[in-house]
């Protein structure tokens, strides 16, 4: 019992000193376990060990709900390999703070005050602050997550049966797609992905709904469960996330559709209705779902750039989606809007957004852009691929989207590790990462006088 | 006298209602005059009219102190054409608010209170607030500018004589380079640019010094004139700008040198000393000078990306350099640093930077990035050129740098107009632009309660 007690003590100490660092460690442990599982012969179709860089990349891609692949999910992995991938996606989709809270409860039976606050903020904006609620919050989050994924599975499975699959296969595929969709993972168990279903709305609509709900985030889902469609009762975070999500879906679909309308390598030759379905599907998937109907390498360069922008924004905070998040973008735009109008406060829906919020938002964006730029630079040294492809793959990794022009598979191991690091940093969140790595947080005892430099 | 009185009344009204809009109009007028002058046969070497898009592009490039060209400065333009270009550069280098203040004083003999405040802030951070000082401030700015350019000319001219030019030619070239350097314009009157002087430190050092001083900005230059090297007496703006400038020169030179060290198409075949000179020169010129020793199209893609980043940052506020400005970058980094350490205030050199400053900084960066991205997207539709070249030329235009892979000259007229618009917006500054275009600035009578969305 001595080592277990030591581990318990260690977790307790880290949890009370730095919950962010605990979350980081918990997440790393989960990835290590799945890397090991995927490297074993039982996970591969040909019953051999998988190379470490490929196993690690796939484990990171699964647990960080990204969906980038270096080997074919359908062909390289055995049934068990695919089970591990979807289990990794399910666990990863809960979010790193939820995982950390679970681990912390399991090992030490209690959470520190700061850990409880962090865990709460990752699951709900409405938690009243009584710390005892974390356990029940955890239960609600996991229950909700499971119920939505079961519902998706129950819709998808009959369709696969109708399309000719055996009932066990259809159940398996239904479950795999349900987990992949709600958790915004974008893995597909079919070797040619979703292409055979590109006109099949019985498949596409559940996938779009699942991805969209997952991308809203647990804090929003819990508010919706509590207050339904009564807009006035929603909190500010929910209002911004929902309106921002719909706006981005519409803008993305219009942009994608217009840019690709006459591109014969993608949707140029289709009927108008099919073009519209493709545009809406692409728009929803771009902000983190990662499923694709058309070959991303065949898109116009401008479509790739627009996709880059949408991927970088991503979905809701504490969701299964990645990116800098919708509220971050919204706060930036509201601040710029207020600045241009010469207003003192940044406002939205009759609320003032505190000044400190903007500082967090800009930190998220700049750190994210810096990570992507650095990774791009490093990858450019490893491959003759063009900048637009490298940028696309890097942003796709950082924003845990999983759309790809297949560059991941072409890169040497060093490039795969860089992309894996991007996925990891993107899923953890740059702020959590920075606060986990910072040595200590100082309390401020005095303030300096103010002085304003000229800006711009 | 009736029309003149009407014009005077109009200028007075605009100046008191929106100094930003007046500045915009003044700047547009200057560009219109130079477009006309350059389109005339007297300006071209072959004595014919120059196409409007080429005349406009060159006028914008000169007055916005950019240095991008669509026709060879040495071959296409006559002596008078080159005189107009350097006159445009000299006027443009004073800055749009200085131009507006001059115009306003010339036409209406007085400045409104808001106009005086704006003009002051564009020239000095130390102005005590007595509005009568604007006239003397204008005198100081113009005198300083002329003296520095004369000094550069006096250093450069003897060297051109030594290199075999006649005295009048050497005087003319000395003046042209002096104006081009201090105003960070990057135009060269020689058909093969600076390449013949690439090892000539008697030419290169004055150019680097001139560009560097110009890129600090008048508010910093005035503080340096007043307090010399006594660091403790400098204001916050000067401290940040000077330290930031030196840091960026060093980082840029190291980065550029390392990335190009073995590139035989640029500096790979040179002696170590020459490589270092080239790296330092490139680093200084990248943040807005725009002179180049090596063919920019021959650089590694990663060097182009690093150059993109340095160009986007640019020089000091209210300087002859462009970009988002050093203080803007510094405020963002200080804010992120404070956020990561969990500190309440953003601090530098014993001063707290006011919260509102961050909002301005983020507006500058996001508006700039949006402009560049939009222009890139539009230009991609007009040319088969690769993304890295289009991005390079767009950022070079926005940040009024003038480094080029020669894409400007290859583009159809529509592309030239887009780049001209970018140079214009970049030189005016996104904030001035936004405030000139905004309909009215509202005073706020009440505040909403605060509510904090989840960020990141
Ligand atoms: K994904
Ligand atoms: K320039």
Could you walk me through the main structural features you see in this protein, from its secondary elements to its overall organization?
Two copies of one chain form a homodimer. Chain A has one domain. With 456 residues, chain A is mostly helical. Chain A is globular, with a radius of gyration of 22 Å. Chain A has helices spanning 2-17, 19-39, 52-63, 79-93, 96-108, 113-123, 133-162, 167-182, 201-216, 218-227, 236-260, 272-289, 301-313, 326-340, 355-382, 387-398, 407-410, 413-428, 430-437, and strands at residues 346-348, 351-353. In chain A, 55% of the residues are buried. In chain A, strands 1-2 form a two-stranded antiparallel sheet. Chains A and B meet through helix 11, helix 13, helix 14, strand 2 and helix 15 of A and helix 12, helix 14, helix 15, strand 2 and helix 16 of B. The structure holds potassium ion (K) (2 copies). One potassium ion is lined by residues 65-67, 184-186, 288, 290, 400-402 of chain B.
Describe the secondary structure blueprint for this structure.
Two copies of one chain form a homodimer.
Chain A: H1 2-17, H2 19-39, H3 52-63, H4 79-93, H5 96-108, H6 113-123, H7 133-162, H8 167-182, H9 201-216, H10 218-227, H11 236-260, H12 272-289, H13 301-313, H14 326-340, E1 346-348, E2 351-353, H15 355-382, H16 387-398, H17 407-410, H18 413-428, H19 430-437
Antiparallel strand pairs in A: 1-2
Helix pairs in contact in A: 1-2, 2-3, 2-4, 2-5, 2-19, 3-4, 3-18, 4-8, 5-6, 6-7, 7-8, 7-9, 8-9, 9-12, 10-11, 11-12, 11-13, 12-13, 13-16, 14-15, 15-16, 15-18, 16-18, 18-19
Bound molecules: potassium ion (K) (2 copies).
One potassium ion is lined by residues 65-67, 184-186, 288, 290, 400-402 of chain B.
């Amino acid at each position: 019992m001595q080592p277990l007690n030591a581990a318990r003590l260690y977790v307790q100490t880290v949890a009370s000193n730095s919950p962010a660092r605990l979350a980081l460690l918990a997440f790393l442990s989960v990835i290590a376990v799945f890397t090991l599982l995927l490297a074993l012969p039982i996970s591969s179709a040909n019953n051999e060990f998988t190379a470490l860089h490929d196993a690690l990349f796939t484990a990171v891609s699964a647990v960080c709900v990204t969906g980038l692949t270096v080997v074919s999910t359908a062909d390289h992995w055995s049934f068990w390999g695919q089970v591990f991938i979807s289990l990794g996606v399910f666990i990863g989709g809960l979010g790193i703070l939820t995982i950390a809270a679970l681990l912390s409860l399991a090992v030490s039976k209690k959470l520190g005050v700061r850990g409880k606050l962090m865990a709460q903020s990752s699951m709900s904006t409405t938690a009243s602050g009584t710390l005892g609620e974390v356990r029940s919050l955890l239960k609600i989050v996991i229950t909700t997550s499971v119920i939505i994924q079961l519902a998706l599975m129950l819709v998808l499975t009959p369709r696969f049966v109708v399309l000719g699959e055996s009932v066990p296969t259809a159940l398996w595929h239904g479950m795999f797609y349900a987990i992949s969709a709600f958790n915004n993972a974008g893995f597909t168990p079919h070797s040619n992905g979703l292409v055979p279903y590109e006109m099949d709305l019985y498949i596409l609509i559940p996938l779009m709904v699942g991805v969209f709900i997952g991308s809203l985030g647990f804090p929003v889902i819990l508010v919706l469960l509590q207050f339904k469609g009564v807009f006035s009762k929603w909190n500010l975070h929910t209002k911004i996330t929902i309106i921002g999500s719909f706006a981005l879906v519409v803008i993305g679909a219009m942009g994608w559709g217009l840019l690709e309308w006459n591109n014969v390598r993608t949707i140029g030759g289709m009927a108008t209705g099919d073009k519209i379905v493709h545009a809406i599907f692409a728009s929803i998937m771009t902000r983190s779902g990662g499923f694709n109907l058309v070959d991303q390498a065949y898109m116009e360069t401008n479509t790739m750039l627009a996709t880059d922008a949408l991927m970088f924004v991503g979905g809701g905070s504490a969701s299964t989606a990645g990116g800098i998040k919708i509220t971050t973008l919204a706060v930036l735009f509201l601040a710029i809007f207020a600045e241009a109008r010469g207003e003192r406060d940044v406002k939205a829906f009759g609320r003032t957004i505190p000044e400190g919020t903007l500082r967090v938002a800009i930190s998220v964006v700049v750190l994210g852009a810096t990570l992507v730029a650095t990774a791009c630079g490093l990858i450019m040294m490893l491959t003759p691929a063009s900048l637009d492809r490298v940028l696309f793959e890097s942003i796709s990794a950082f924003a845990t989207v999983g759309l790809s022009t297949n560059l991941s598979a072409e890169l040497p191991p060093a490039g795969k590790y860089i992309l894996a690091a991007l996925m990891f940093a993107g899923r953890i969140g740059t702020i959590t990462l920075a606060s986990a790595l910072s040595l200590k947080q100082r309390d401020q005892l005095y303030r300096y006088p103010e002085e304003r430099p000229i800006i711009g």
